[in-house]
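Below is one such protein, fold included:
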Amino acid sequence: MSKIGLIIKREYITRVKKKSFIIMTILGPLLFAGVVVAMILMMKMDDDEFKKIAVIDETGLFNDNVLLNTEYIEFDFVSTEYFDPVAVKYDLTRAKKEFNGSDYYALLYIPHTAANTVKGQVQLISHKQTNLGLKMYITNSIEKRLKDVKLDLKAQDLGISDKDVQDILVAVNTNINVVTTVIDGEEERETSTQITMIIGYVCGLLIYMFVFMYGNLVMQGVIEEKSNRIIEVIVSSVKPFQLMMGKILGIALVGITQFMLWVILTFAFITIAQTALLDETDVAKLTQTMDVSGQLDVDSQLSDDNAVKFEEIFRSLSSINIPLILGLFLFYFIGGYLLYAALFAAIGSAVDNEADTQQFMLPISAPLMLGLIVMFYAINNPSGSLAYWFSIIPFTSPIVMLVRIPFGVPVVEVITSVVLLILTFILMTWVAAKIYRVGILMYGKKVTYKELWKWFRYKN
């Protein structure tokens, strides 16, 4: 086995055997799965909580036929209890005081101005923050009732019958669903802009996190070996370049191993938790409750809408070239990591402790941060000139190109980006190696950029 191979093996085995690696490999998926399961359980618990809501309606337009009770919501109309005949108004102050000591989940106050203005306002008073689903359910119910009332009044003014009004509403009511289709030559495929944006965003963010995290591991490893003077023993047997490359490639394998384990374990933990904590009824109920409309009163039509939406999602996913995205994700992860890991290794060799690295971190972290910023622009305009150039420039291409890939990128642009990334990695490795070979044996001296330039120009 070559010397670089031995170093790779040493770095890999040493790090995967560390308690920190084992703990983080298990703890990471557990935490992620725990967050997902906790969100589901909290949603389930919140939906299962029975909510009794007191209603004070000044308009007189609402009753239990408008604000319909559901399995977990009951509306109690208490308007008459708080009407003051002397002042000829509703005593909201007394209602709030009595609400504090009551068993009501919330107090819904509908003032008369809600029906007399274009933008009406009602007040939902509760002991804790109410969820979005309840708020949307009340909002939609009130809006629908006020719309019907105003239509009836307008129809009376114009002398139009209720039946004619309903016929007009049915005739003009139109629901639009924008279906995006991409034509590639003679091939047509249906896509989803939202799903494509999510995939691009997640891929770009993961690349940023992994490149920074594992590149930093290289730097810490070099600093640790340098401060312990182990480096002096190692370079007596291998060349500095071989040591640097072995360390970079070994940690790259550690990162790939940990990432794959995270994916597998996270999926396994979520599946086990779902099976253990939620039965089929709960899962179906949660699927219905999580509908984007926010309605809590789920009927058969809403279930049909959910089925249609899920069908659209799966159809859109099938139109995305997942193997291509995964393959390029792996390449840009490795390519981006190798590019930046060489620079991190050079920084680690130039300092004696981690505190001294701050002055050199900006030139390395700035392109990564810039790529992250451009990523948000590229999501909205993946074909724009800014997204194009930053997906070609090697220092930002691992992040920005991964955002553009799900939207479809010409093969020429991908090949250009790949070739430039490989060439830049080779160049930066050569530059970093020249600094590394001198820096790893330098101790006790405050290094500056001028000093780094001298090391780079140094010849054997």
The beta strands are 51-57, 73-77, 83-84, 89-90, 106-110, 123-126, 180-184, 187-191. The longest strand covers residues 51-57.
